[in-house]
Predict the structure.
Amino acid sequence: MKILSIDVGIKNLAFCLLSNTDNIEKYVINEWNVINLAEKTENKCAILEKGAACNKPIKYTKDGKCYCSKHAKKCEFIMPSTDFKPASLNKQKILGLMDLAAKYKITIEQNSKKADIINRLTEFAFNNCFQEIEKQNTSKVDLVTIGRNIQHRFDELLGKHLETINTVIIENQIGPIANKMKTLQGMISQYFIMRNNNINIEFVNAGNKLKDFIGAECKTDYKQRKQLGIQTCAELVSGDFKYQEWNSFFSSHQKKDDLADSFLQGLWFTKHRL
């Protein structure tokens, strides 16, 4: 039995694939990840860690490669600075520009005009500084880009499992403010219907995932539930031998809350709906 649990998101869609053989209580994790459906291409950090791709979010780019914050600091390039922004350079007087050149050991010819100094500093920044990757506004991402990314990323990460997944559970999107997320829920469903028409697809309430870990009388807000999810998941992957191989992955991931949501939602389903 294979259960795929999906926590819906455009920039941070989390999924957890659970499977068992003969014992319903011995579900293990086969695949677990967070993907970005907003990017036209899914770039990754160019640096390998112990022979494997770095899974930290990318922050900077240089010469066609992308880097996370950790690995960018270890490269020879300079971190982005407001010193080199056009608005900042244009406000400076020649003396200030010369001080900036001295700070970065940039050679400036004597008696250079302000425009020439700015051009020299701009050229230096282009050749030696990282460029910060702009954050994407998910509200402006078109549905065609999202749909193509669903196909590309799910084919890439789940392709070998598509014929053997029994059930896909998707966090149900409710309320008028969730119109785009409701559309995304439908697009995800359609992907699996087209890939394997025998897959059972169910929509589940987001509140179910923590029911087995906190009492029904316990009132929590959104932030508290997120923190409880992370804490509960961390305890499970570090303390239960079935999940311990994923402990390092979870503890080092930037989006623990989304990973936890997909995992705990899957566990709840295996206990209460099978």
Q: What stands out?
A: The chain has nine helices and ten strands.
